[in-house]
């Protein structure tokens, strides 16, 4: 398919040169086709940029989250066990959502 | 009017009931909208007068951006250059489609969070010190007077001369007084609403003219065919010894229908059209007071962005509304518009170098039927008045906020309002004095004149703003010496060009190729790069600015919520103290002669009301209030749905722009 299109463009180009040789300057492609091709290329570039941006941003934010989690872990991993560090002061079988709260805060600051 | 009709003999002028009726109707509408918006907004404060109280929605913003950009210089200049050398000049307009997006997406968020009114003020906050902002205010005022105002007025006068046959000075003075009247009284809100009306008038009228002219020439394909053979009938000089006219001076260019032309031989080479114009556009759209002030008046960042998109779509039109009609004019009147023999040109339009400037006016007086000619005159007046009024308003903002507050730090709101209005009158007077020079210097192609002067002075400013916003490392000495170096380089090019003259096709300039051989658009790119390198070099050799001074002043820190230690806070504090002292003194004086207040004449009060100067003045904030106010951060957060909506629209607009660029490449 791509080959056929290339051949087609080559033909068009040759047509252009031939008509130019005939003494009159002609365009290789009709105006509207140049326009469409340019828009297609432009949209493709935007798409690539979008994908790259998405991938890059996602990658970096995930990395950040991981590092936050390890920090949290390191902090709570002192003398207490994990559960004790988040156990509620009021109720013995309730736990405060300390880790979640903290990590969100860090993310917004970033 | 009848007298002038007889004098010039046989030419058709606007003097019938239908035409005059349309013009009067136009004035009534504009004045009506002006008065309506005068009552809507508070014009007595700095924020109300200069920023319209920051309440504008997107459509006045977009329309106002367009109307203040499109002046009568565009009608005469774009059409004239189009007639002389084809569509490449449309690149100036279509480049702006991308630049206007840069404005809305990258520059305005930073200006909004910085909380500034003028561009020099931004530089003062960003770099500290006073010399950069002083230089920027002075050079902006210089550029307004010597390029924008004088060119707009001159081209408006060319049109009026062609259409009405009035004297150029009387015409200009009449126009200026009307414009000055509504700038002085209205403030930015009135300007922006009247600009919206003007945009409608400009587009509607120009569309009508485009229709008539395409009908006259026989359609688009006929234009493509006939333009190449639009030759003047008299093309040989009366005395061959002195002047031998070569064929390429009067035959239309082969590449007339191409936007992108040969990089060395073209009159507007493609690297210049793509990059050079982008740099000049970057100065015009992103760092110039006239445009940015309109964006700052918007209600929120989303409205700014939507306004920019609207303006971008409107900027697609000038190619069809002005450049093509200009070319049609050459096809229809090759002897007048395409004249080449100096004597003939002198007879047709009064200048020897060429008459392409009359392309558009000629079309108006010849193809338009009665009644619509009045409409076209209204269009020209709309374009002229809207762009002049915006320049007047912005230059008075610059003058009062940056120069007057430096001379008199104790000046309070009321004084600033009065000074701003007086400055408008001064600038009008200066620009009238400048007309004869423009008339003498212009070389037939008006547009080139504005663009070449701009491209020698603007690129350093664009470079400094660009680096100031995106590179945190840039500091005061870097920016200042960059600007100075750029200015010297620019002057090195301007001086020989003015000394030797720009020359014309018949009598080429004697300027040595080494200096003037580089195309002015290429020179803009070089100047931009050199200034940028100089700024970075000096900055890296001097100590950097601390982050605490830069919060919300550079792009990467625009969302920062930290407290900022303003570099200009000492000066501001001194100003506030001076104003407070002045207020005390004033109050004491008032207490002494309270009965005298009743004696204020009725006339003075009427003028005061008309200009929106209310008698009472808000008292100066105390130091605590100032600290409180500085804690309220400007908000640039957007509703995510609308954010995606404007982003998608920007993408669509860019795709459309790319299509048109490629279509006419």
From TrEMBL, chain A:
GO terms for cellular component: membrane. The keyword Lipid metabolism does not apply. Keywords: Membrane, Signal, Transmembrane, Transmembrane helix. Residues 1-22 form the signal peptide. Its main location: membrane. It is a single-pass membrane protein. The chain crosses the membrane at residues 32-52. Pfam families: MAP17. It is found in: Membrane. InterPro entries: PDZK1IP1/SMIM24. Belongs to the PDZK1-interacting protein 1/SMIM24 family. This is PDZK1-interacting protein 1. It comes from Bagarius yarrelli (Goonch).
UniProtKB/TrEMBL annotation, chain B:
Its main location: membrane. This is Sodium/glucose cotransporter 2. The chain crosses the membrane at residues 12-36, 96-120, 132-151, 163-184, 196-215, 268-286, 307-328, 375-395, 416-437, 449-471, 478-500, 520-542, 645-664. The keyword tRNA-binding does not apply. It is found in: Apical cell membrane. NCBIfam families: sss. Belongs to the sodium:solute symporter (SSF) (TC 2.A.21) family. It comes from the Eukaryota. It is a multi-pass membrane protein. GO terms for cellular component: apical plasma membrane. GO terms for biological process: D-glucose transmembrane transport.
């Amino acid at each position: 398919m791509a080959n056929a299109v290339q051949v087609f463009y080559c033909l068009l180009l040759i047509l252009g040169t031939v008509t130019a040789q005939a003494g009159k300057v002609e365009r290789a492609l009709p105006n509207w086709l140049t326009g469409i091709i340019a828009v297609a290329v432009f949209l493709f570039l935007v798409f690539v940029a979008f994908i790259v941006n998405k991938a890059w941003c996602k990658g970096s934010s995930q990395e950040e989250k991981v590092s936050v989690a390890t920090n949290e872990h390191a902090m709570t991993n002192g003398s207490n066990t994990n559960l004790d560090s988040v156990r509620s002061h009021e109720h013995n079988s309730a736990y405060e959502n300390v880790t979640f709260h903290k990590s969100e805060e860090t993310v917004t600051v970033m | 009017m009848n007298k002038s009709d007889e004098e010039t003999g046989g030419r058709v002028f606007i003097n019938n009931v239908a035409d005059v009726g349309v013009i009067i109707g136009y004035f009534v509408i504009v004045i009506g909208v002006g008065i309506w918006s005068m009552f809507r907004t508070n014009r007595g404060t700095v924020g109300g007068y200069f920023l319209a109280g920051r309440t504008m929605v997107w459509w006045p913003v977009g329309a106002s951006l367009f109307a203040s950009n499109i002046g009568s210089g565009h009608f005469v200049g774009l059409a004239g250059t189009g007639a002389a050398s084809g569509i490449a000049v449309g690149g100036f307009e279509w480049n702006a489609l991308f630049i206007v997006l840069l404005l809305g997406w990258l520059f305005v968020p930073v200006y909004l969070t910085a909380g500034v009114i003028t561009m020099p003020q931004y530089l003062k906050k960003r770099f500290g010190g006073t010399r950069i902002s002083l230089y920027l205010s002075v050079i902006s005022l210089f550029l307004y007077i010597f390029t924008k105002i004088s060119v707009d007025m001159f081209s408006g006068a060319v049109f009026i001369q062609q259409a009405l046959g009035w004297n150029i000075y009387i015409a200009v003075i009449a126009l200026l007084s009307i414009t000055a009247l509504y700038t002085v009284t209205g403030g930015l809100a009135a300007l922006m609403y009247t600009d919206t009306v003007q945009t409608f008038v400009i587009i509607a009228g120009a569309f009508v003219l485009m229709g008539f002219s395409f009908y006259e020439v026989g359609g688009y394909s006929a234009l493509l065919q006939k333009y190449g053979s639009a030759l003047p009938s008299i093309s040989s000089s009366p005395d061959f010894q002195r002047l031998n006219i070569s064929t390429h001076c009067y035959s239309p260019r082969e590449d007339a229908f191409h936007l992108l032309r040969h990089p060395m031989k073209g009159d507007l080479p493609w690297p210049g059209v793509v990059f050079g114009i982008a740099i000049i556009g970057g100065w015009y759209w992103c760092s110039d007071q006239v445009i940015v002030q309109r964006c700052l008046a918007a209600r929120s960042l989303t409205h700014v962005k939507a306004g920019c998109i609207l303006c971008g779509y409107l900027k697609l039109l000038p190619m069809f509304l002005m450049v093509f009609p200009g070319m049609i004019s050459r096809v229809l009147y090759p002897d007048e518009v395409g004249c080449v023999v100096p004597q003939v040109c002198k007879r047709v339009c009064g200048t020897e170098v060429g008459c392409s400037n009359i392309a558009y006016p000629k079309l108006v007086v010849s193809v338009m039927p009665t009644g619509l000619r009045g409409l076209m005159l209204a269009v020209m007046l709309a374009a002229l008045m809207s762009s002049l009024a915006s320049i007047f308003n912005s230059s008075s903002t610059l003058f009062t906020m940056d120069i007057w507050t430096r001379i008199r730090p104790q000046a309070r709101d009321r004084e600033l309002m009065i000074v701003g209005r007086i400055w408008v009158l001064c600038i009008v007077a200066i620009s009238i004095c400048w007309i004869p020079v423009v008339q003498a210097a212009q070389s037939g192609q008006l547009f080139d004149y504005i663009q070449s002067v701009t491209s020698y002075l603007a690129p350093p400013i664009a470079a400094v703003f660009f680096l100031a916003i995106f590179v945190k490392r840039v500091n005061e000495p870097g920016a200042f010496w960059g600007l100075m170096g750029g200015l010297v380089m620019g002057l090195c090019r301007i001086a020989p060009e003015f000394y030797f003259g720009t020359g014309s096709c018949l009598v080429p300039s004697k300027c040595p190729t080494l200096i003037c051989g580089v195309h002015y658009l290429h020179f803009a790119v070089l100047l931009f790069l050199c200034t940028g390198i100089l700024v970075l070099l000096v900055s890296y050799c001097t100590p950097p600015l601390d982050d605490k001074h830069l919060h919300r002043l550079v792009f990467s820190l625009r969302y920062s919520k930290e407290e900022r230690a303003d570099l200009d806070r000492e000066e501001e504090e001194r100003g506030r103290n001076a104003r407070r002292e002045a207020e005390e003194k004033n109050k004491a004086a008032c207490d002494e002669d309270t009965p005298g207040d009743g004696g204020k004449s009725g006339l003075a009060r009427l003028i005061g009301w008309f200009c929106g100067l209310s008698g009472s003045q808000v008292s100066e904030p105390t130091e605590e209030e100032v600290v409180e106010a500085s804690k309220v951060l400007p908000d640039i957060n957007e509703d995510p749905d609308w954010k995606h909506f404007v982003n998608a629209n920007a993408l669509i607009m860019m795709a459309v722009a790319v299509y048109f660029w490629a279509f006419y490449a």
